[in-house]
Design a protein that fits this description.
Number of strands: 0
Strand content: under 5%
Order of helices and strands: HHHHHHHHHH
Shape: globular
Helix content: over 70%
Radius of gyration: 17 Å
Largest sheet: none
Distance between the termini: 54 Å
Length: about 210
């Protein structure tokens, strides 16, 4: 372990900890979005509470900060790392960015569900799968009206693509895809319960 290794993972967590939804809500609208709507500090709730002009920048930055965490890992990986070790280091940095988003240091460790940041990690680690997952998410959202359904089913699609469609040989990327498929439903447990009870709120781009 070297200083650059620890700097890389520390920076990844700090990037993930930037609470975009919370800061935009407080700075530009004078409210903490965690006290409104679903109580989640994510783009979907920002759109629900404040509208798309606030929510879309949140979405884009949350994706970008995780992508950046993975990208910067190239510069912090120790020189003696093999290619496989670099891949693992990138996955670690991406995971810490997601962890930072869910438990942000700058927002009392109460953040979002991590879906947007996971998108950033996938975009950085496995970009070939991203367009397919994006189309699937959009179709699921349009057909059901639920962001949670789109998020959960898109995460389940990732290991199918990685393992069965693209025939990935890198074990680390396979494990990553499986963990994503497990992580997203776990962070959406309340949404799943509401869906089963018919109480989940449908997504609307614009407030009534």
């Amino acid at each position: 372990m070297t200083l650059s290794f620890f700097l890389g993972i520390f920076l990844a967590y700090m990037l993930g900890s930037i609470p975009t939804a919370v800061w935009i809500g407080i700075v530009f609208h004078g409210i903490d979005v965690r006290e409104h709507g679903s109580g989640n500090a994510g783009a979907t709730n920002v759109i629900r509470v404040l509208g798309p002009r606030a929510g879309l920048p949140v979405l884009l930055f949350d994706v970008f900060k995780a992508w950046l965490a993975v990208y910067l890992a190239n510069f912090f990986a120790p020189d003696y790392y093999s290619q496989n070790q670099i891949v693992n280091f990138k996955i670690a940095c991406g995971s810490l960015a997601v962890l930072g988003h869910v438990f942000p240091l700058f927002a009392n460790f109460k953040g979002g569900k991590g879906v947007a940041t996971l998108v950033g990690v996938i975009l950085a680690m496995y970009p070939i799968a991203f367009p397919i997952i994006l189309v699937w998410f959009i179709l699921a959202l349009i057909s059901t009206g639920y962001v949670s359904v789109g998020s959960i089913t898109s995460s389940a699609l990732l290991p199918i693509l990685v393992i069965l469609v693209f025939r990935e040989k890198d074990l680390s990327l396979i494990i990553l895809s499986i963990l994503v498929a497990i992580f997203v439903p776990l962070t959406h447990r309340k949404n799943i319960h509401r869906l089963l009870r018919g109480q989940e709120s449908k997504f609307r781009l614009y407030k009534k």
